[in-house]
Structures are given as C-alpha cells and as structure tokens.
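Annex B. Sample input.
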Amino acid sequence: MKFEVRTREQLRMWLKSTGPAVVQYPDLVEYDAEIAARDLSGCAFLGCAMGPTLAAIATAAGCVVLPPIARTDDAPFDAFSPGLYTAKELYAGYVPADPTTYDEYFDRKVYLSYMDLGPPKVLKAVSTDILLLRRMHDATIAQALDEYVALANGRIVAIMGGHDASRAAPLYREVAGLALQLTRQGYVLATGGGPGLMEAANLGAFAAGFANPEQAIDTAIRTLALAPLYNDKEWLNRAFGARDALGQPPNPAASSNLGIPTWFYGHEPPNIFATHIAKYFENSVREEGLLALATSGVIFAEGNGGTVQEIFQDACQNYYRTYAQSKSPMVLLGIDYWNPVVVDYSDPTDKRRPVYPVLRKLASEKKFDDYVHLTDSMQDAIQFITTHPPTS
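Annex B, continued. Sample output.
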C-alpha cells in the first residue's frame, strides 16, 4: 500500500520516510523543493496546488498529476476531498434568519446540480467529465471514511430507521437514548445521516460528550419537536437552534459519530448532529459501505422501503460472509412492526413490514440465525449487540 497523505502531519511523516504516496494535501507550494528532491516513482498528486519545479519533475517521473479543479455550476464540489465533511461545511452559506439562502448553501447546490426536480424527478444528464468528477469525489470520501473506521477498531454499530419519523414521537427519544447508551459502551454510532430516526441516533451519540447527556437530549428535543417532520418549513432552523443552544461538547471525542447520507436522496437534508459525514453521489456505494463498516452490528428501527432494503442488504452480507468471512448481529426493533400477526395489505395506513419470517429463513440456511434478534426492548437490543461480537 502507498502512503496516504491528507493532513500536514501525514505529509511530514511521508517526507521522513521512503516510498511512493498518494497525496491529496491541498497546497504543496511551500514543500515544492523538498518533495521534488525525492524519488517520486509511483506517486500520485490529486488536487494539489504545486509550484512549477515539482509539477515538472512529477510529470517527468510519470506520476499521476491531477491539478485542483475549479468548482462550476455543474460540479459545485471539490473532486478530491481530503477528509470527511462536517455539518458546518455542508451547510456553508445557509443563514437561518434568511430564507433566501435555502438554495444557496453548499449541500443544496450540489443536490440541485445532481437532480432535476421535475416532475418527474430524475438525475440530470451531464457530460462524462462531470460523471468522472463525481466518481473521484466518492472514491476520496471512501478513503477518508476508511481512515475514520480504522480508528474505531471494529467497534461500529449502525442504527437504521425511517427518515419521516417525528421528532415529537416517543420512538425518537428512545432511539436517541439507545444511541447514547451504545456510545457510552465504547461503540461508534453510524447512521444514514438523514432526518427522522437517523437524526435521533446521531443526536444521542453527540450528547455523549456532555456532562449530562440525558439532559442534553431532552433540551434538544424540546426545540426540535417544534418542527417535527423533515419537510416542515422550520425543520432546519430548529436543528440549528437546538445545536447552538447545546454549544460545543466538553468532551468532543466522546461525541464522535458518523453520518453517511447521499445526494441521491438529497431531498432528505443531512442532520447536523453527526460529527463526521461521508456524503456520496452513488447511493449503491453508500448503502453497501454503510452496512459493511458496522461490523459490531446493525439495529433496525421502524422504517420504510430504504430500511427494508438495508435489512436484506445486511442479511446478504451475513448470508455470504462478504466481509472477513464473518457474521455480525442484526436487531429488528419492534416485534409488531417487523413480524405482525396480521397485516391489512389493502390499508395504506398500515405501515408494518412483515420481513422477519423471510429474514429468519435466510439466516437459518446459512447459520446466522443466532445473530438475528427481534425485540421491543432497547435494553435487550443493547445486550444482544454486546454479547454477539462479529465472528466467523
């Protein structure tokens, strides 16, 4: 493996070592002569500003040299991302007191460049160079995510659930409490990074860095519940209000958690309680990666088509032992929701999803049924996760 250089510290480490590197440090001008004096065989420079000496020598050495690419209306993002996003970066340009900025912040601009809102809503047709920039963006986000995951030492648990769950619903508070308890036990929480129960989980994990986490959750929810659904006009403003009222956690490391959203579902705004955000264009890459990194288990709260897809995608990873030939726990939270005795298929208001029998059948065939659990109890869910580490 080549040395990966994204930060100043990594750059200094590479300069003291030997061998090639993939460099995504944005500005190499001050290091121009020092890097140019090295053997650059096999190196790649992605999105780096560099002086003429280094540029000439790197090109002559046959390096991959892709210069910084200016943002355009079709590609209002950086193709080479040196790290994961923060909520502040995604919402750069948004002013809560000024509704005219709603279509002007970074995340929204990228979404509008990606989707034609129609009707019908479809992906915008773009030229090949824009498609390549998006692929490069996703590849560098995946690399940054790998670095974050490596620091978690396999202790990542994902919580999945509906984007349309109300902030005022008891389940929202329960999921936040569940995430808090798992974080306290040393797990890193990951979600799809969107609203609803995903936001609840990221909020619970974020609260772990405060002296009184339960009070932090309750305080935030009192503000958040004033705009309970993600398509409410004040949804985003209430989120900023709650986050600002909490302030910065005294223990930021304890608040560390992960959101992995996608611009494919960009109508679902990213929640601002995820401290590290890996946002992708390609939803298929995002879904597979999100479930793959949660090696310590996935908890599925009530959800819709996306959550059902995630259940069976996770089951497929267990079925084929896709990653490290191991199985990891799957917890379905809500017995009547995931395994109802009777469902009225003619009633569109009956949102229950009878997926458990099919999941159990798959699990019994490939001997991971001991790693599938159906429960109504948050404490039971936590105990199942902690007593079923990933195993081959």
